Amino acid sequence: MKLFLKEHALLIVIQIIQFSAVMSIYWLDGYRNVGPALYSIMLGLFFLGGYLCYQYYSRRHYYRRLQEPLLSLDDSVQQLDQAPVSEALEQLLRQQYRYYQQRLATINQQQQEHLTFMNQWVHQMKTPLSVIELTVQDVDEPEFASIREELERMSSGLNTILYMARLRTFEQDFHIRSISLSEVIREVVQEHKRLFIRNQVYPDVKIKDGDLWTESDQKWLFFMVSQLVVNAVKYSAHTNNKVILSSYIVGHQAVIEVQDYGVGIPASDIKRVFEPFFTGENGRHFRESTGMGLYLTHEAAQRLDHQLELESTVNQGTTVRILFPSYQR
Amino acid sequence: MQTILIVEDDRKIAELLQSYIVKYGYHVIVTTDFEHVLQQFQQEQPDMVLLDVNLPSYDGYYWCRQIRAHSICPVIFISARAGEMDQIMALENGADDYITKPFDYGIVMAKIRSHLRRAYGEYASKHEEIILHKEGLSLYPERLELHYNNQSVLLTKKEADIIESLIERHPRVASREALLEKLWDDQTYVDENTLNVNITRVRKKFLDLGLLDAVETVRGIGYRLYISWNQDDGL
């Protein structure tokens, strides 16, 4: 309505000027009969009003369309009015819609191909990686320790890619069942034993409140705790500090906590640590930060209905907790 | 001697596995003809099969079903695919276990042994007791005993592990990292202090056998077995 009035304001003003111009010509000519003059003005206004009403009524969808924002791409293909302008707009929007649909489909397909390729490639890379790993596994010379370290880095990188891909198809990929928290902690520590030893940081596992069981996805939970442990070790390397892994109960929730006494996260960065590709202050000092670990952990936590808490003080360390809404003993 | 059949199309992995498993006293056959895995299986009658999922013609699941139609011998899958579905598929198709690449020799060996034990009984495999000899010193890692000159001392598991590493590495240095890795098992997480304590205990055990300064510290790297006794004894 507003837009319609704005668009026709000039017409209304011109009409009024026109009435007064015609009236003043008659007035100046000496024709001073007020009654018929007013009547003809009334008549003129009536026709103008009629025109405007018809115009508005026949194009009301068109005007509404022009004023309302599009909420989704599908909004652009609504049925408009019969008026020529409305039909033109409708057609234009339809065309645009079709065009974008095509673009989207192409891009989707390209992305799908790319993803499939990445997945295949990651799996293919695992075989040469296994060969190298098996070759160097039993050789205990200093240079081979360094090769092993790089191998671990590569395979953890490949794993992150796989989990990234899995996140997209999360709904098909997760499998909820009862899981023992202490078991997960033990497995994670075992998995990363070389990382601990190499960085001279040692785990301290504290299983309080007995063995707690909760509903979760084994693979994702393992991945999440692994990410927290890898971070904890990385940011407290060579400090001779421990990384404390604990499980306990708070209120009605079970908790897995990973606490380190490392460099900590600057307060300005804490809010953003769960954003993808965010590496922050520490990312500049420690290489190989991709900014994906905590993002993936956070995303997985959300989808699994676990809560993630992070506290950190610079130079004193970081504590991250995964909270599970329910548990059994 | 028990026979293990490896069906894996990556030649290098197959060979590495073969050479590793052979060390433990098994007879290992590596498949080269992936069209006729079943025939080879029936010919060789292996006691266990290690099977890859991705194979050139048929996949591992197919061969597993084929093998299952004829035998109940243990089948362990080895695959790069780590998805839950793949593991379920493997087990549904008759496999006994599933190991994902990249894997660890230790885990493969432990699983092979445990499945052989399951299938053929603890004593079916008459594998000989392992004894490590070095200059008159004999370590019995399975009995946790160290013998020298008709004398013997009892060891803890950790002490035995340390001595085993030292003997295997001699005359090279066993690095602290390697020792830590060896001592670190499922339940206990070993730190530097624990290693120091255990090294001290090992020294004490050597002293009990009358061997002085048997463990030499190499600063910054690790420890080395120092053999000063063989000249006199002529052993």
Automatic annotation (TrEMBL), chain A:
CDD domains: HisKA (cd00082)
GO molecular function, one term: ATP binding
Entry-linked Gene3D superfamilies: 1.10.287.130, Histidine kinase-like ATPase, C-terminal domain (3.30.565.10)
SMART domains to which the protein is assigned, alphabetical: HATPase_c
InterPro entries referenced in this protein's UniProt entry, alphabetically: BphY/WalK/GraS-like, HATPase_C_sf, HATPase_dom, His_kinase_dom, HisK_dim/P_dom, HisK_dim/P_sf, Sig_transdc_His_kin-like_C
Keyword flag Oxidoreductase: no
Example GO biological process: cellular response to phosphate starvation
Topology term for the membrane: Multi-pass membrane protein
Pfam families: HATPase_c (PF02518)
PROSITE patterns referenced in this protein's UniProt entry, alphabetically: HIS_KIN (PS50109)
GO cellular component: plasma membrane
Top-rank taxon: Bacteria
UniProt-recorded name of the protein: histidine kinase
Organism: Paenibacillus kyungheensis
Automatic annotation (TrEMBL), chain B:
Pfam families: Response_reg, Trans_reg_C
DNA-binding region listed in the record: 128-227
GO cellular component, one term: cytosol
RNA-binding recorded as keyword: no
Chain positions with 4-aspartylphosphate modification: D52
PROSITE patterns the record matches: OMPR_PHOB (PS51755), RESPONSE_REGULATORY (PS50110)
Protein's UniProt keywords contain Phosphoprotein: yes
Response regulatory domain residues: 3-116
Residue ranges occupied by any OmpR/PhoB-type domain in the UniProt entry: 128-227
Organism superkingdom: Bacteria
GO MF terms held by the record: phosphorelay response regulator activity; transcription cis-regulatory region binding
Keyword set, alphabetical order: DNA-binding, Phosphoprotein, Transcription, Transcription regulation, Two-component regulatory system
Single GO BP term: regulation of DNA-templated transcription
Name under which the protein is recorded: Response regulator transcription factor
Provenance organism: Paenibacillus kyungheensis
Taxonomic path: Bacteria, Bacillati, Bacillota, Bacilli, Bacillales
